[in-house]
Every structure is written in structure tokens, then in C-alpha cells.
Amino acid sequence: MSHYRMGTLETRFAQIIWDNQPVASMRLVQLAQEELNWKKSTTFTVLRRLCEKGIFQNEKGTVTALISKEEYAAIQSTQFVEETFEGSLPAFLAAFSSRQKLSREEIDELRALIDGQ
What we know:
Layout: H1 8-20, E1 23-24, H2 25-36, H3 40-52, E2 56-59, E3 62-65, H4 69-85, H5 89-99, H6 104-116
Helix pairs in contact: 1-2
């Protein structure tokens, strides 16, 4: 799943697509120019890379997502826990909560998630 990784600018560009899909490729060029100050060639180069990664598709001049923003976030979260904490969610939560105290509401939300499994 590592092929789903995106850099900071790719992620900002992906957000433009997720926010506007389905989006005509030429409209995407305009949006990237307005929001990222990109040239047309840069937009199409990055779009091609993200299509090759299987995140988006550009079919007949219309760009759509193959995975949602939420799916992407879930994949990235899983990869992070796997790579950093040997797949241990409790180890991740222990590390996270050692630097940032969880609120009562967050604890209740986590319990509800666990109970819902």
C-alpha cells in the first residue's frame, strides 16, 4: 500500500480534486493555478502520478477519485501504526496520550468505537 503515499503538495492537490470531483481536467488546471500557482504542465504531471498510484483517474477529461479522502486517511493511519508501532494500536494510543491528555469525551468516543467492534 505504500504506493498511496503523497507528499505535501500532492496532498494539497488531491484535496482540490476531492473537493471538486467530478472535475473537468481543464477546470482542475484553473483551480491548481488559483490555489497552488501551478502551470498546466505541472498540474498534468502531478495528476498523472496520482493516477498511476491508483488514487485518481482521468477519463475522457473528467477527474474522479478512486479512493475517498477518508479511505486515504485510513490507509495512511494503518501504515503509520504498522511501521512505527509494529502494528500495535495500544502502543500508538499510549504514545499519543503520553504527550496529549485525552479528554473525557475522547475517551468515551474510543470506548464506543471499541464496544461497536
